[in-house]
Specification:
By secondary structure, the chain is α/β, with parallel strands linked by helices. 28% of the residues lie in helices and 22% in strands. It has 16 helices and 23 strands. Helix 7 crosses helix 9 and helix 10 crosses helix 11.
């Protein structure tokens, strides 16, 4: 039967066949909200009716400046299911960037929560298309005073509508959500996901979610990845599709609060960038806490240090499964090892997981050199990674930001990688982050991975510093664990023998805190700006 893939089908299925399964969300104010999929489905229908009453038409962009709460979860269905486009906005961006992307997207409505209300108040005079701002709360928590004229209450809007809505069928290639890249250079670029692409990626990830869960066992998903970061890695779709409990951490990402949810709600699988786990595992070590149910965490965005992957499995029984992906390429690789890898010794299992996932069915991969000549996928040749798939972006919203693909239609990922004959993808660096010394490449990822293996190091970032003879040489920037000490020469000596001698950093600088992007990744652009006048002693 020729039936379109519709996002609304996921929440409708959840309500019909596991309507009593629980959704738990921490509110912005800090308390826990509990309800089930049947109630969530009813509220998404009320939201769809409310949007229609406000004049929203198919294709209109609806902005959400919000964190991982149950109301934000409802928007993934109430907005997209009605044919409008949910534009998830990163509240960590600068005001100028927020104004740019909201105006560029032409958002008609803007939904905010208690944490992002001040941001909305500050930028509202510069927003040219927003007709209404909606506060995502119940009436009792509406602000007593605000500079936003006619601020609407989310729960009041829903209460005025019937809990029945006939979800429409339309072209599955219609846009469902809109997400802008973090914009480390130039303006952020918009990436549209369709209903078809969103569900295809969710269906591809679903087997990874089932890893290690016996048939019929209870599973609980908690996305630590924010909903404005690649649809929280499809968890808002996966949980209803699979019938698992869903836990949403709200705004508070302090390690004790994350642990309270992970352990208290018996979470079995989560997802997020390695930064979350670097902070959380250090807290676990200091507090002596352990996990009793958590088994797997999907990792992407940046390469995790090997020491982190080893610590999570050896000390906490949690497998950190790495995959490659980006805003333009959700589902870039599979976070799974080759069948049979589970029988390998511990060190070899970690070796496999230090790669950036395996080739995912449906994706086609290509490596090319600087001239565009295709390179072999032999695990040795390093080239610019190109990818094609039914869910890979082919262009940026409104055609701005330059071409996303090369002359043959392959997505230009900006990553350097190797691919071996078993399909393991290993990112060696971002093309803009690779350190070019004497005409040879030095992988900043490898430098960071080895440095992070020192017990005193919490985070490490390697950047290239201008050198009169070698063009560039590596500078290692480090933050230390609480109470730990190590000198620069001691750290370089620790790294000796683990890397080629000419790869070793020429100097080490210590900082109190690393600059992070809005999605929690190391912001090397800021580090390069901070150390642009740095002069190496050698």
């Amino acid at each position: 039967m020729d039936m379109p893939l519709m996002i609304s089908a996921a929440i409708r299925y959840a309500a019909a066949y596991h309507g009593s399964t629980e959704v738990v969300a921490r509110t912005i104010e800090g308390d826990l909200h509990r309800y089930d999929y049947a109630t969530a489905h009813a509220r998404t229908q009320q939201l769809a009716n409310a949007l229609a009453r406000l004049g929203v038409k198919p294709g209109d962009r609806i902005g959400s400046l919000a964190w991982n709460t149950h109301r934000h979860f409802e928007m993934f269905y109430g907005v997209s299911g009605s044919g409008a486009v949910l534009h998830t906005i990163n509240p960590r961006l600068f005001a100028e960037q927020l104004v740019y992307i909201i105006n560029h997207a032409e958002d008609r409505l803007l939904f905010v929560d208690a944490a992002t209300l001040p941001l909305a108040e500050a930028i509202a005079p510069r927003l040219t298309t927003v007709e209404h701002v909606v506060m995502m709360c119940e009436p009792a928590r509406m602000p007593a005073r605000t500079s936003l004229p006619g601020l609407l209450c989310y729960d009041e809007l829903l209460a005025a509508e019937p809990a029945h809505y006939d979800w429409p069928d339309f072209d599955e290639r219609s846009a469902s959500t809109l997400c802008y890249t973090s914009g480390t250079t130039g303006n952020p670029k918009g990436v549209l996901y369709s209903h078809r692409s969103a569900l295809l990626v969710a269906l591809q990830i679903a087997p990874m979610v089932a890893m290690g869960v016996p048939n019929g066992a209870a599973a609980t998903l908690m996305p630590m990845a924010p909903m404005f970061h690649g649809n929280a890695w499809q968890f808002p779709y996966l949980a209803p599709m699979l019938g698992t409990r869903l836990v949403l951490p709200g705004r508070n990402y302090e390690p004790d609060k994350l642990y309270e949810l992970l352990e208290g709600e018996r979470v079995t699988l989560t997802c997020g960038v390695p930064t979350f786990w670097l902070i959380l595992t250090e807290w676990l070590q200091r507090s002596g806490k352990k996990f009793s149910t958590l088994r797997t965490s999907l990792s992407s965005g940046s390469a995790p240090p090997r020491s982190l992957v080893e610590t999570m499995e050896r000390d906490h029984g949690v497998q950190l499964m790495q995959a490659w992906g980006m805003t333009e390429a959700l589902g870039g690789s599979a976070a799974t090892s080759k069948p049979g890898a589970a029988d390998l010794p511990f060190e070899q299992r970690i070796d496999a997981r230090m790669r950036s996932g395996r080739a995912l069915f449906g994706n086609r991969y290509r490596l090319v050199d600087d001239a565009g000549t295709e390179l072999p996928q032999d695990g040795k040749a390093v080239g610019h990674l190109r990818v094609k798939a039914p869910w890979i972006s082919s262009a940026y919203f409104k055609g701005e930001g330059g071409s996303a693909v090369d002359e043959q239609g392959w997505l230009k990922t900006g990553d350097l990688a190797t691919i071996d004959t078993d399909g393991y993808v290993s990112l060696t660096d971002r093309s803009k982050d690779v350190i070019k010394s004497g005409g040879e490449w030095i992988s900043s990822i490898e430098l960071e991975n080895v440095a992070s293996g020192h017990p005193a190091v919490l985070q490490a970032a390697a950047i290239g510093i201008t050198h009169p003879k070698w063009q560039e040489r590596p500078l290692l920037v480090v933050t230390l664990r609480e109470g730990a000490q190590v000198t620069g020469p001691e750290l370089i000596e620790f790294m000796r023998g683990k890397l080629a001698s000419w790869w070793l950093p020429d100097a080490v600088e210590f900082v109190d805190q690393m600059p992070l992007t809005g999605t929690g990744k190391l912001w090397k652009l800021k580090l390069r700006e901070q150390f642009k006048d740095y002069v190496l002693k050698t």
